[in-house]
Amino acid sequence: MASQSQGVQQLLAAEKKAAEKVAEARKRKARRLKQAKDEAQADIEKFRQERERQFKDYEAKYLGSQDDVALKIKQDTHIKITAMNKQVATRKDEVIERILQLVSDIRPELHVNAKKE
């Protein structure tokens, strides 16, 4: 019976040792997964920054900076306003004359919706 008890004790000790090894293996696996996740996250961040830098270079090369775009819009607006002011100046007298002609030339007529009695 003592040998059987000793055999059981050995089995329990072996089972305990195996459980410890499994637990340690699980911990190592969890650490490796966490490390892999951190490395992947760092790679993703590095890739994102690289792509963002490439986009900014592309934007600066082909579109110019935002200040350049704003300046160009401002210049275009100024040119259009100047052209409109020139048109107003050249046609101002014609328009005033036409308005005065329409205001002073009154022809009394019944409106088409007015009832004739």
Automatic annotation (TrEMBL):
One of its GO terms (biological process) is synaptic vesicle lumen acidification. Keywords: Coiled coil, Hydrogen ion transport, Ion transport, Transport. It comes from the Eukaryota. One of its GO terms (molecular function) is ATP hydrolysis activity. Residues 8-57 form a coiled coil. The keyword Signal does not apply. GO terms for cellular component: presynapse; vacuolar proton-transporting V-type ATPase, V1 domain. Signal peptide: none annotated. Subunit of the V1 complex of vacuolar(H+)-ATPase (V-ATPase), a multisubunit enzyme composed of a peripheral complex (V1) that hydrolyzes ATP and a membrane integral complex (V0) that translocates protons. V-ATPase is responsible for acidifying and maintaining the pH of intracellular compartments and in some cell types, is targeted to the plasma membrane, where it is responsible for acidifying the extracellular environment. V-ATPase is a heteromultimeric enzyme made up of two complexes: the ATP-hydrolytic V1 complex and the proton translocation V0 complex. This is V-type proton ATPase subunit G.
